[in-house]
Amino acid sequence: MRIGLLTEGGYPYVGGEARLWCDRLVRGLGQHEFDVYALSGSARQEALGWVELPPQVRRVRSAALWGEASGRSVLWGRRRAGRRFAECFGELAAGMTGTSGQLADRFGSGLYGLAELARDTGGLAGALRSEDAVRALESACRAPGAHRAARAARVPDLLAVAADLERVLRPLSLDWYDDDTLGAVDLCHATAGGAAALPGLLARHFAGVPLLVTEYGVRLRAHYLAGAGGAGEPGPSAPARALLASFHGRLAAETYREATVITPGNAHARRWQERCGADRAKLRTVYPGLEADRFAEVGEREEPGEPHTLLWVGRIEPAKDLISLLHAFAEVRKEEPRARLRIVGALADGARAAAYLDHCRALAAQLFPDEADDVHAVGANPVSFEEIGGPEAPDLTDAYAGGGVVVLSSVVEGFPISLIEAMLCGRATVSTDVGAVVEVIGGTGLVVPPRNPRALAQACVALLRDPERRARLGAAARARALELFTVEQNIEAFHGIYLEIVSHCPVRRETVDEAGEPVPFAHPAEASVPGRWAVGGVAGTAPVGRAAPLTPHAPLGPAAAAGPSWAARCGLRGQLGEVAS
Asked: 351 and 458 share a domain?
């Protein structure tokens, strides 16, 4: 099977999101071939280069979603193409700004119209940032039925929106959709929503290639959270944010509508997808997988770690709410004077994260002044800030080995990888009830409300004082993680989904010989018989070769994957049985 793996800001680059799980997936499915189509997120990411690719990766095509787009408008001086662009972009803009339920169809019509225009003319880079695009946006914002925020947009807002749309829509102008690229794959697997899924939508539109969309962090949710702008920079205005949110919402809805299967990483992401229009019949939850062997030594030790140490692991940023954790630890120290707090993690990008770390250090120094036995000794603060690779935590497993209780204090969380790592290490956990935390913990740890230092402190004290309970919860957590959150279960799940999609929705291509001439009878007759067919004893819902929601949880054995025989379809099974007997 040939898979087109679609990524944005991740694999195969050394630094980026979803790099690890994509690499594990590709290496674990050595029986398949992979073509990687990567959208890079920054110049720094491209400068760092690629990871070492396994032999099953046949090719890598890349394009940049950062910086200025190269080239001028190829529509300049071509009146007919210019009118066509204005019509298609106007439809796209109308789908963004209106409130009617039928506008989703206009958004899709405009999107695919622009894709066809880009294929016919060679690209839209200049047109998408032209005055015609801004005029079309303005007309849509002033049209009857436009929502209130769109009507409030002014020229600077429209310019900002047009610039962002040009960046996200750059995949429309790529040469990735002919018979030698994405048109030649059996399945497109988008590793995120948004721009990463856009090439999959176009391959589906131009070549009928089925699309699988995996979201471990819902891209639309991340866009909403980042809507206020970057660290240290003024964010876009309220009208611009509303227009961009509407665009990303329409793109997500179109992606979910056209996808053959959608695989959220947890129930939290699944609820987001359903609210954004995903058909429940298409959804299959596939948990991310971690390498359990990496944590096996720590998880199988009889020593429970340092019994008086609380451990926090993660990326240091405001969403992790270390401020509440420090205030909670102040309450813990009143009950358990020997307790220590180790904060181990990497600093998130941006000046805002660095300022947040400085604020946390200052608060720790204020809450816990150096303690000394007498006036001639220097005290040690019970809170330490460490980095992986330092002398106190040379490796991630060393950090978990030294913790008695692992704490998560976030106010915003998607899928808590650090909790799964702690579970694989057999550590008891105290977490805030955000994101997919409860789904991951499953009763093997304590959960408290977010932004509640007193509740967090009480849960930590309860575990610090009860070593038997810590050991019991840690053992249960490790068993749960080994059952649900390993690389092996992740790879097996996707292998089954690949086979299921291709068996339901094969891509029909004309077979040619070395001279390029069609080969007669290259496809068996039964492969083209229309009608309904059954998989795993459950009736399908679509003719062969067309995309439709797959029957959830339908097992695929060898016979089911092959489909019903031509004799059964033609009603000859009984006659053939009589002849054979």
From this structure: yes
